[in-house]
């Protein structure tokens, strides 16, 4: 994330929990942003929030802050014994783009996969070029293409992991 917001962290954690994902990594090299996320997680896991709303606590149990994508990849590799497939997302199609149905079928194979979302100006160019796949962009109906990250994540997770068949390839 280029700029961490507590609403994004909370809502994305809830979406990840809803679709049964493993860890939600919040990646930021900025110490102040890391502290903000740690404070948010602490409030809901140990603070007053844990008693006030246990559902929010449950949603944040698998939310972790890392200072780099490489550290998240390392952790996933150590836990699974295999380097994760890197799938980036964005508003533009890339040469290694993959459709939702094809990725959904790959996910069924059970190999670790890291879906990478960006905020602000999107993901860094080299990251996109070096990813295993780039998921086809979400397309609206009128040419405007600037979804909030938490909205895009919810749509993509539903298409990939939802109970109904996706109407989109």
Would you state the CATH class? Alpha Beta
Structural class computed from helices and strand pairing: alpha/beta
List the strand order in the largest sheet: 4-6-3-5
Our estimate of the beta-strand percent is 5-15%
Topology:
Elements: H1 6-18, E1 24-27, H2 31-45, H3 48-52, H4 54-60, E2 63-66, H5 69-80, E3 85-88, E4 97-98, H6 100-107, E5 113-116, H7 125-130, E6 133-135, H8 149-161
Helix pairs in contact: 1-4, 1-8, 6-8
Structure write-up:
By secondary structure, the chain is of the alpha/beta class. It is built from 8 helices and 6 strands. It has one domain (6-161): 3-Layer(aba) Sandwich (Alpha/beta knot), CATH 3.40.1280.10. The mean pLDDT is 91. It has a 4-stranded parallel β-sheet. The chain has helices at 6-18, 31-45, 48-52, 54-60, 69-80, 100-107, 125-130, 149-161, and strands at 24-27, 63-66, 85-88, 97-98, 113-116, 133-135. Helix 1 crosses helix 4 and helix 1 (6-18) packs parallel to helix 8 (149-161).
Keywords:
Alpha/beta knot; two-stranded parallel ribbon; 169 residues; globular; 47% helix
Write a compact overview of the structure shown.
This protein has 169 residues and is of the alpha/beta class. The protein is 47% helix and 12% strand.
């Amino acid at each position: 994330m280029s700029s961490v917001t507590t609403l994004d962290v909370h809502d994305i954690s809830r979406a990840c929990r809803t679709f049964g994902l493993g860890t939600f990594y919040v990646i930021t090299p900025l110490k102040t942003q890391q502290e903000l996320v740690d404070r948010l997680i602490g409030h809901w896991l140990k603070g007053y929030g844990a008693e006030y709303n246990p559902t929010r606590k449950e949603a944040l149990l698998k939310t972790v802050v890392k200072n780099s994508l490489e550290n998240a990849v390392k952790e996933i590799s150590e836990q699974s014994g295999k380097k994760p497939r890197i799938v980036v997302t964005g508003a533009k199609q890339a040469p290694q783009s993959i459709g939702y149905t094809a990725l959904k079928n790959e996910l069924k194979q059970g190999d670790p996969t890291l879906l990478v979302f960006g905020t602000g100006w999107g993901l860094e160019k080299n990251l996109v070029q070096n990813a295993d796949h780039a998921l086809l962009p979400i397309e609206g109906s009128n040419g405007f293409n600037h979804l909030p990250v938490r909205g895009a994540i919810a749509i993509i997770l539903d298409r990939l992991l939802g109970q109904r068949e996706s109407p989109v390839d």
